[in-house]
Amino acid sequence: MALHAKADEVLEGENVLQVRGGSMSTKMVYGNDCNMMVATRAPGYHSNPHRHDCEQINYVLSGEVWVFCDGEAFLMKKGDFSRIPRNALHWAWNRGTEDCVLVECHAPAADPTVRKAAYGLYKDGETPDLSTAVKTYRTDDDPSVIERKIFGDKL
After folding, report:
1. Which of 88, 121, 132, 134 could connect to 53 by a Cys-Cys bridge, CB 3.0–4.6 Å?
2. What pTM, to 2 d.p., does this model score?
């Protein structure tokens, strides 16, 4: 571990959390108080509605993705930013035909143990302290209710 990691040192891992469709691969780095993840969401990717007790800031590097947050929906495209407030019910859906590459930052850190190949950025000899890292909680909420309002019969 080190305070700096070259791109090839941060391995790509698959999302180990259940999704409704499609696939997502991630590169995630973390410290004690925040994490950053570059997530590639394939066409058809649809996460389950979930919450976490951290704020999330997103930035789209390429492609597009629909983001649903507390009853609202917006289409994010290359160069767009968004914020998911703490404990907000949210999910994402790539309805496009190309991969969406999204940078996500969470503060406090989202639990890095649920991502394969997450990479800690710590000095040699530094003891990681993930005591404030938060869990992600999947819900049984049915996303189709909100999605039908947005897309109608085009689901």
Report:
1. 134
2. 0.89
